[in-house]
């Protein structure tokens, strides 16, 4: 019997090792869920929008859409950093809602998303967002004080790092987490996630260091990113919280609904 138990324990141990090794090797396939692309031309989705090519510091060329404001222009530009899935075409309703409020918008896709070259990593995504910011500041003449970052979920970690690097008018974080391991521990409570994860995506530390006006928009029914985590981010930034009752993580009301649009508009108005 003891021999059988030893064999069974050995089988379980091997299975656990294989599982952990597999998750470590393929973890980025679980974190990043890009659409394969290609993305349609900007003007076919948002009339008046234009296709843009961003150049990253490591030599990649990434697709983006510049969406100019409609109606009275506020002279404020919103850089949108996507979450971990899809592509910029899925953010078209958000861009349409923001442009209707007089805001210019830049939608872009990370490396490996929307037909872009490269493979996504934490540093790679930040480099891609940095290229988007540089395009706005250097090529379109947007003053950093007239620039807002809007980070969606994982994109909140991207723009938090960007905000800590240099001046920006303000930040809006939609459904941010404390850091990626805090999310992974909820999904895989039986695994040593903090030891396994390569990409960490901290939010609390960089947004606290950035010291910029920050608004956090969260869904009170979010089962993926608990509201307590988003509130912790807001507390670290000494920011404002906008809670949407009954909203889940991927609900349209959080993606481009009135609460999110009003939060961005209010940040823009605060710039004067």
TrEMBL record:
Key word Transcription present: no
Residue span(s) of domain Serine aminopeptidase S33: 76-182
Keywords, in A-Z order: Membrane, Transmembrane, Transmembrane helix
Pfam families listed in its UniProt record: Hydrolase_4 (PF12146)
Transmembrane segments: 6-26
Protein name: Serine aminopeptidase S33 domain-containing protein
UniProt source species: Actinomycetospora cinnamomea
